[in-house]
Design a protein that fits this description.
The chain is an all-alpha fold. It has one domain: Methane Monooxygenase Hydroxylase, Chain G, domain 1, CATH 1.20.58. The chain is built from four helices and no strands. Helix 2 packs antiparallel against helix 3.
Length: 100
């Protein structure tokens, strides 16, 4: 079912790949900066603000990948009459994201 979709599909949106990788490198830098803030005993509120910024950046990457997934993988699955599994998988991901 949904697992069979995962086994046969890979990330396909190469147009976005470099942008996403660039954003991920920035997120890595943010994470290292936050670790330094903790090591340096910086003000708690400043650390939390940076953590919120990191979370927002990660959410934006996730949304872009999810958008690509819907436009590509889910659309293809629907055309190939495998849409029910793709939609169920997508709803599971959305449920997890909402319940964080």
């Amino acid at each position: 079912m949904a697992n069979s979709l995962r086994q046969t599909r890979t990330y396909r949106c190469h147009d976005e790949k470099e942008l996403l990788l660039s954003r991920m490198r920035k997120i890595e830098g943010q994470a290292r900066g936050i670790a330094r803030m903790i090591e340096d005993n910086r003000y708690c509120v400043d650390i939390v603000q940076q953590l919120n910024a990191l979370s927002s950046a990660a959410d934006e990457v996730a949304l872009r990948i999810l958008e690509d997934h819907i436009k590509g993988c889910v659309t293809d699955a629907i055309r190939e009459e495998r849409g029910d599994d793709a939609v169920e998988e997508l709803l599971g991901v959305i449920r997890k994201a909402i319940h964080r």
